[in-house]
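Batch job 17 of 40 flagged for manual review because the log was empty.
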Amino acid sequence: MAGIPPSKSDRREQAREKAAALRAEQLKREARGRRITLLSIIVGLVIVAGLIAFVVISGNKKVNVNPDASAPTTAVGINGGISFGADGVAGTSNDGAIVVETYLDFLCPWCAKFEAENTANLDEFREAGEITLVVHPISMLSGGDKTAYSSRAASAFAYVADNAPDKALAFSTALYTNQPPETGDGLSDDEIVDLAKGAGVPEDVAKAAVGNQFADWAILQYQEAAARTELLDAQSRFTTPTIVIDGEKFTGNATSADEFRAALETAIAGGGSTPADDANADQ
């Protein structure tokens, strides 16, 4: 027996119920969409806030360099560098000798190669009283960050120059011999302390050397050097190592001991340095 077909009023009621169900489902979808949108906005704001905080913190590290930062007391050499005379003690000089300036970053691989090849030459002529060595420990590869390795190492060297001046050159050699990769965080403060102690620096001085007292000064040393056009290369860049012999930039092969020695001998003889090509410079 066939069922009784729904009445017109029943069909209308069913239609209303179906429409209500569809509307309820639509409202659920819209509510879900609003929640997702709101959550996305919140996440986005958190990310933006984090980025702003990162930029501010990074900017504070890089920008807040004190233009009147104190230099180490041993920075009595030409252009504010740390001078070394015959006895190898920071803050001393050789009367009547030509001046050899080195602008070096303790994180620069080419600077380490320069030191490895030419420390013997520099020591020989310095100890003979024929040159005064003036070291500029600059923070170039830090990008202006006072907590980066270039800044920390330069500051530690400057502190040792002031407080254990007869150990500064040995400490410098230790920093280059144990140079970390150019990328990365560099040596830790504890590792720098150990290197200083290994170079004969008293323990109390070694521990205090990582206080970053001269980080601002090391960054300023770089900024001042980079502003001197006579120190720039053919592309108007300041690179490391930069060596100045008797007032003339050495543009020869910084990792050739023979070439560098010849330039020193020429300058000592009164003829000035005779640089060749501008090679082996770190950006």
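Reviewer: the log was empty due to a logging misconfiguration, but the result itself is present. Confidence is low (pLDDT under 50) at residues 51-62, 271-283. Unflagging and moving on to job 18.
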